[in-house]
Specification:
six-stranded parallel sheet, 12 helices, 60s Ribosomal Protein L30, Chain: A, alpha/beta, 41% helix, four-stranded mixed sheet
Length: 286
């Protein structure tokens, strides 16, 4: 196991020396773009929200919606509510054939509605820290290292918002962004939980350490996730399912934590593992 500290007692005895927190102010085409130029693909589709719940949450939030596409004949249930709220806000509503929505959709699950929105505004890491400070809580940040599955990203954001985390950090390269599929998987949580994009995760971890954070990495070589003290300012790092946390990022972690696996499969889905670890933070802070 890498890291400087191995148990709760060691960390409690050395926490004071770390420093204290300081306030700071045609569908194949899309697939090919994603494979060849993932960053370009993110920019290509991050201005759309697909699915009833994500669109409804966007309407309830402060997100600017430029246009709403609704399938012809779809006027039941939540679609009726979406159309009503869009009209109240003066948003342009266009009825189109469902086939047209199928052609536009990148999540393959538009549920009869697609919204064109202003591109998601990523925040700075300092904004995540301040969010915790403003609530009078030790900052709790989730960091995703090379997560390329939009469904995993969305699921992690959803759980992070539900458990009271103050934000999520993702790298600019080798990582999926807030695509329609990720937004839909988050069930609208992206409208309430800020996400920061950083150029270099290693440098970001160093800066967080200087501010008093403890860096916990999810890794099969780690100690039991219940054996570590997660009550102070904490940054929880979760890697991709195939590779896990990258070597350089792992070396910057203060300690590693693992979740026991009793079956034949070696590891959990990344978003499931993240969820277990996030709620351990919640349990210890209760």
């Amino acid at each position: 196991m890498t890291g400087e500290y191995s148990n709760k007692q060691d960390r409690r005895e050395t926490r004071k020396s770390r420093g204290t927190m300081k306030p700071r102010d045609k569908r194949e085409t899309r697939d090919e773009i994603w494979k060849q130029e993932p960053q370009k693909a993110h920019e290509f589709i991050e201005n759309r929200i697909e699915g009833r719940n994500p669109v409804l949450e966007a309407l309830r939030s402060k997100r600017t919606i430029e246009k709403l596409l609704v399938a012809k004949g779809a006027g039941e249930g939540s679609i009726r509510e979406i159309i009503g709220k869009a009209r109240e806000k003066g948003i342009v509503i266009q009825e189109v054939n469902r086939q047209r929505l199928d052609e536009i959709s990148s999540s393959n699950a538009h549920q009869g509605v697609i919204a064109y929105v202003t591109q998601y505004e990523y925040v700075e890491v300092e904004d995540l820290i301040k969010r915790g400070e403003d609530k009078g809580e030790p900052p709790f940040i989730v960091i995703l290292d090379e997560i390329t599955d939009p469904h995993n990203l969305g699921a992690v954001i959803r759980t992070a918002e539900c458990c009271g985390a103050h934000g999520v950090i993702i790298p600019k390269r080798r990582s999926v962004g807030l695509t329609p599929a990720a937004v839909k998987a988050s069930a609208g949580a992206v409208e309430y939980l800020p996400v920061a994009k950083v150029t270099n995760l290693v440098n970001t971890l160093e800066e967080l350490k200087k501010l008093g954070f403890w860096i916990a990495g999810a890794d099969t070589e780690g100690s039991s996730y219940t054996s570590q003290d997660l009550t102070g300012p904490i940054a929880l790092v979760v890697g991709s399912e195939g590779r896990g946390i990258s070597r350089l990022v792992k070396e910057k972690c203060d300690f590693l934590v693992s979740i026991p696996v009793k079956g034949s499969i070696e590891s959990l889905n990344a978003s499931v593992a993240a969820g277990i670890l996030m709620y351990e933070v919640v349990r210890q802070r209760a």
